[in-house]
Amino acid sequence: MMRRSGRTARIKNNTVVLLLIVSAIWIVFMSSGIFSLPLFPPDEPKYASAAERMLGTGDFVTPYFNCTPRFDKPPLIYWLIALSFKLFGVSAWAARIPSVLSSLGVLSLIYLFSAREFDRWTAAISSVVFACTFHIWVMARAVAPEMLLVFFETAAIFSFYYAFEKKNNIYIWSGYLFAALAFLTKGPVGVFIPGSVVFCYFAYRSGFLFTLRKLLNPAGLVIFFLVGLPWYIAMFKIHGYRYFQEFFLFHNVYRFTGKARQHPFNPLYYIAVITGSLYLWLPFVPDVWRNGKLIVREKRKELFLIIWVLFVLMFFSISVNKLHNYVLIAYPPLAVLFGQTLRNLSAVQKSWKGMFAVIAGAELLGLIVLFFSMRNIPAVILAGGAALVFLSLVTALRGTSFKKAFPLTLSKGMILLVIANFYIATYDRQMQPSYSFLRAESLFEKDPVYFFRKDSEDIVFYSKQCVTAVKGREALEDLLKKHPEFILLIREKDLWEINGFYTEDVVPFDDIAGRKRYLVEIVRSLPRG
After folding, report:
1. How far apart are CA 459 and CA 45, in angstroms?
2. Residues 86-124: pLDDT tens digits?
3. How do residues 120-177 score in pLDDT, each as one tens digit?
């Protein structure tokens, strides 16, 4: 009896420790640095600006950006950003709150699913693998609907899974609810991915007709229609066929088929994206691969996760247009597969040592190339790169078990995060004078703002006004007839075109890639004295 109570106490203590570890991982890897992140064009300012306008006008039906209706995405992300603005004030970091919290939601779903299907250690490892994936680092902080979509799609898939496994209508109804919310986040893909993943697995396991009857639940369909359709109906009433054509046809059908060619990439594009994102976990890929083959051969329950990953990869690889964020929904099952595999590893694997040695060589080569190709490299980047090489070599030489290799891998993640946050914080400090100048001139001096030839969406958010583009000297002369002074965003290569105009202020406004731009205050005449 005492042994049992002692074991129970240890399990409870381990659970608390694991939850603390997972929480710390989320805080460090998925939410740190958001206070120093400005809004990056082209997309982030669009979501933030549209949400701010909704809050200001009270029109929560039609999103607007730069005084033009924006039909690219459904409303849920705008609504949540607007709510964040209401609670915390309008700022770049407040616009990131929905994505940050969505990443915590996905992390929680992964933990709960893995703990239920396997054990708590598997759940903890799976959560850490997910949190320490580069792609997730980026999108967990992004002002975009993708992480919110991953949360609702993952919740829908897990709900539908348990609807078959537990034979409880609560799960099927919650699955339809989450699918409806995914539909309000990104459109048809939010329904298609969860439905297809679950259908493929259970049609294989339980038969086509049984799976179809189970999924087509009348009460679930009613929930979906009541939650997911009213906003679309309102948009059709307001904007008519124009909305249907631009959102459903152009942004969904035409982009998939290639009739609208915007981001055409090689069919292997997503393999490269996922491989790069799993950089920290690449040494363990051979073990996951061997475990995956065993799962398929023995038809174990983890086959559900493999089908999930494969369906997402195949579907989006078929699409002519490809964007990196389309495959974010593949990371939750990948994280669980990694967690389940690594949980059962104990002795050192020869493949680890070889892989870590190869990665150390690649890191060293990258550091050398960086050193000779860039000027004035910050010391923190050089020191961080050297530390990465050192840790990879230590893991290759001393990582005699997964328990030793695991913390070394997390340490590499921490170093990379420090480097990324340092770079972003440096950029933010560099941009603050530019943002202050723009706010002062546009909000207090009421100077109109214009783009010269090339637009930049962040200007719209930070200037709090609609901004149009002009081309050529004649257009500038016409503007001076209307306004005694105005602000012009201009690229360095176009500066020659404003020669001869009176300018009061020229403020650098470089983008994150270092491309030279300037905010120039052009005046009709210089003040006397």
Report:
1. 8
2. 999 999 899 999 999 999 899 999 999 999 999 888 998
3. 889 988 998 998 898 998 899 899 999 999 999 999 999 999 998 887 889 999 999 9
Q: Return the closest-CA partner of residue 333 out of 300, 306, 296, 297.
A: 306
Residue 417: other Cβ atoms inside 10 A: 18
Helix (H) or strand (E) holding 222: helix 218-228
pLDDT in tens, 220-231: 999 999 999 999
Q: Which residues neighbour 314 within 8 Å (Cβ) at sequence distance 6 or greater?
A: none
Q: Quick check: 25 and 413 in contact, CB under 8 A?
A: no
Q: 334: number of CA atoms within 13 Å, CB side?
A: 26
How wide is the angle at C-alpha 334 spanned by C-alphas 332 and 198, nearest 5°?
65
What's the per-residue H, E or C state across 72-136?
CCCCHHHHHHHHHHHHHCCCHHHHHHHHHHHHHHHHHHHHHHHHHHCCHHHHHHHHHHHHCCHHH
Give me the torsion for CA of 368, 370, 376, 379, rounded to 10°: -70
Whether residue 309 contacts residue 337, with contact meaning beta carbons closer than 8 Å, is answered with yes
Question: Residue 66, SS3?
Answer: coil
Closest among 224, 189, 195 to 211, alpha carbons compared: 195
Reported pTM = 0.90
Q: Give CA angle at 116 (114, 119), nearest 5°.
A: 65
Q: How long, in residues, is the chain?
A: 529
Backbone angles phi, psi at 267, to 5 degrees: -55, -25
Query: What is the SS3 assignment for 504?
Result: strand
Residues near 313 by beta carbon (within 8 Å), at least 6 away in sequence: 270, 271, 274, 327, 330
Query: What does the angle CA 323 – CA 329 – CA 331 come to, to the nearest 5 degrees?
Result: 105
Match 């990582």 to its residue by tokens.
Answer: 399
Name the residue among 160, 177, 167, 184 with its Cα closest to residue 219.
177
Amino acid at 429: R
Crossing angle for the helix pair 76-88 and 169-186, nearest 10 degrees?
80
* 448 token code pair: 């109109």
3-class SS of residue 522: strand
Q: 136 and 325 in contact (C-beta within 8 Å)?
A: no
pLDDT of 9 higher than 60: no
State the residue for tokens 């009613």.
222
Sequence-ordered list of residues with C-beta below 8 angstroms from that of 329, at least 6 positions apart, any chain: 149, 150, 153, 154, 193, 312
CB 70 within 8 A of CB 63: yes
Alpha-carbon span 366 to 97, nearest angstrom: 34
Phi-psi region of 327 (alpha: psi -120 to 50; beta: other; left: phi over 0): alpha
The pair of structure tokens assigned to 395 is 């893991």
Sign of CA dihedral 334, 340, 343, 348: negative
